[in-house]
Q: What sequence folds into this?
């Protein structure tokens, strides 16, 4: 049976949200943009990402992770400062596209 992760909401407004969960002792950040992805919205997402980074850095966190399942998500992760780790994520019961892991040093 696929385990449902415990999610912690970090940010939410009418345009998007960001949350974190812990997978294999790694803090994994996910974000979702609820509206059309314009350059203005993507820039705002980057500012919010930087605030989240600063919050974790102040708590002594050295690195954050995120995932991608499409080229668009890969570009978005790189825009936010994440780098591909070369690892693929395996989730029991998941039958979708390959999940690639990204990491950001704080």
A:
């Amino acid at each position: 049976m696929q385990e449902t992760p415990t999610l912690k909401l970090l940010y939410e407004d009418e345009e998007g949200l960001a949350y974190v969960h812990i997978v294999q002792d790694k803090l994994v950040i996910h974000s979702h943009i609820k509206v059309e992805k314009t350059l203005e919205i993507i820039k705002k997402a980057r500012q919010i990402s930087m605030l989240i980074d600063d919050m974790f850095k102040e708590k002594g966190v050295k690195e954050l992770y995120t995932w991608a399942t499409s080229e668009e998500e890969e570009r978005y992760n790189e825009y936010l400062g994440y780098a591909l780790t070369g690892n693929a994520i395996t989730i029991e019961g998941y039958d979708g596209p390959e999940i690639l892991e990204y990491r950001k040093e704080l």
